[in-house]
Amino acid sequence: MNASLVITLIGTDRPGLVNALAARAAACGANWLESSMAQLAGKFAGIVRLEVAEADAGKLEAALRELEAEGLRLTIERGAAAPVAGTARTTNFTLVGHDRPGIVREISAALARHGASISKLETACENASFSGEPLFRASIEVQLPASVEPAVLKAELETLANELMVDLNLEGESAD
After folding, report:
1. For residue range 22-55, what is the model confidence (pLDDT) as tens digits?
2. Which ranges form a coiled coil (predicted)?
3. Which fold has domain 2-78?
C-alpha cells in the first residue's frame, strides 16, 4: 500500500531547492506525482504530492525535514483518497482585467455560494502590452457538485465579470 504525502514549502529562493527535494524523494523511493512551484518576491514557494510505500513514509518525512536546516519551511500532510468519479463535474475558466483588489474574493465567493470547489487556481499580474497598465490574469479549475446547474453558475459568473470589468472565458465542462 502507498502513502500520498502533500508537502508545502517556502524559503528564500536559491539554485538547487527543487533538486534537494527531488533527491530526498528519490532516495526514499518516492514518486513525484504533482507539483506547482513559483518564485514570488524573492521567495520560492510550492506544493508537491509524492507517493511512497507506506513502510517508507516516515523515512521520507524525516529526510524532507532535513531541508528545514537549510532554511526551507515545510508542512507535510498525508493525503486522502481521491474522490469517487462521477460525483463532480470539472469546468475551467480564465479571466483577464485591469488589476484591482477583490477580484479573487468576488469570484471565489460566487463559486462557494454554489458549492463549487476550486481544484486549481493560477493567477498573475502583468503589464498590458500597449498601456503598461497592470493586468490581472486567472486560470481556474472548479469541481461542480452534481446538483449545480452549470448554466446557472455561468450566468452568475458572467454578471459578476461585467461588474468587475474583466473578460471571462468559460472553457467548457467535462465529466470526472
Report:
1. 999 999 999 999 999 999 999 999 999 999 999 9
2. 50-77
3. Alpha-Beta Plaits (3.30.70)
